[in-house]
Hints:
Layout: H1 19-49, H2 54-70, H3 72-82, H4 84-104, H5 111-135, H6 142-171, H7 176-194, H8 208-219, H9 222-238, H10 240-243, H11 245-252, H12 259-263, H13 265-280, H14 286-305, E1 314-316, E2 319-321, H15 323-352, H16 359-363, H17 368-388, H18 392-397, H19 402-408, H20 414-446
Antiparallel strand pairs: 1-2
Helix pairs in contact: 1-2, 1-5, 1-6, 1-7, 2-5, 2-17, 3-4, 3-5, 3-8, 4-5, 4-7, 9-14, 9-17, 9-20, 13-15, 14-15, 14-20
Amino acid sequence: MESPTSGPGAGRPTWRFPRAFWTGNAVELFERAAYYGTFIALAVFLTDVVGFGDVAAGWIGAAFSSSIYLLPFVTGALSDRLGFRFSLLLAFTLLAAGYGGLALFPTRGAVPFSLALVAVGGAFVKPVITGTVARSSDSASRARAFSIFYMMVNIGSFTGKTVARPVRALLGVGSVPLYSAFAALAALLLTAFLFFPKENGEERPRSVAQSLEGLAVVLRNGRFLALILITAGFWAIQGQLYASMPKYVLRLVGPEASPEWYANVNPLVVVLLVVPVTHLVRRISPVASIGVALGLIPLSALLMSLSGHLAGPVRLCGASLHPVTVLMVAGIALQGLAECFLSPRYLEFASRQAPPGQEGLYMGYAHLNTFFAWLFGFALSGYLLEAFCPDPKVLAARGLSGEALAAAYAHAHYLWYAFAGVGLLAFLGLLVFAAVTRPRREEKSKK
């Protein structure tokens, strides 16, 4: 099949793409399923299987999850020089070894090393696949190509978390990384036998030094850095789907709960509502749309906290549900709605903070907000869980039982008050940012 960039359909939108495009998207689906399957279970795995305390698990989760968003600035440059095929083979070898190591050697000494393998391997995948999508499409078809890519990302995310629930229930949380290892191995085999991309020899590959120089340039722009840190407040709360929510739910509801499936409410809402919401807010400014998102996100945390004020089950459509289940799902759905207001307009607004001619450079670093959010949010989660929703094994070791054990969880919902405060600070920060940058934005709009 001819590439749309060179075949007779060049210049006209098409759904026909070369085999490397479809293979790349298939392995992206497997990689996301592997990643999210383990990621949703990671916080519980680190405490219940490996034996770390909540604080240590929080810091390990922070280092792992944030590095996923920082390492691509290095691995992206390396993949240009190593070649996409070799880089992807290396990536899935590291991922299979890393996930397998988590399952087979769940010790305090081995787990950080296994997580490092997963982080490095995963950091190669995203730039290689997005690069393959870009090279496999021309300007007329690129939007279609990336729509397929993002669909695969969401299918993989949904699948990974969905499968993780029965694996945990049947085999224990320690077996979830083994499922991820098999998914990574399947992607490795697909890459080895079907992924033969056309390498681009016309462009001079970036060096790691050039990537780091670009990062330094971006971080010296105060307005752009401020926007990154402000929106990091949003993603710090969103990140609690993986950092706090699984432990919070399992400790308050019990092992029969399904935090993996609760987390899937978020991408489901985004898929259903992002297009109509984006259309709805098309006439308002990006900063106003971002403001709506930052106004909703602390409300989602407050909604989750209401479970601490409800006694007894909640009757809903004839079913008797735990109040934590009902309010957690409602809060996660509200987060999904808030994301619909934020994500499409954030990139648009971020691009306007770049000096003329440097938009591409700046957009490459726009997702640094997730790096800061995951680093801060996971670390804070560990301290809040230890203070308000502690590990039941720790409480049992102290001899607590019955009413004394129940009393230890009486203020578990305070955890969500803390994150509501983070969201409120982000909202206030955006108001200050908007006031300070308004003269510049008005000047640009007149040109």
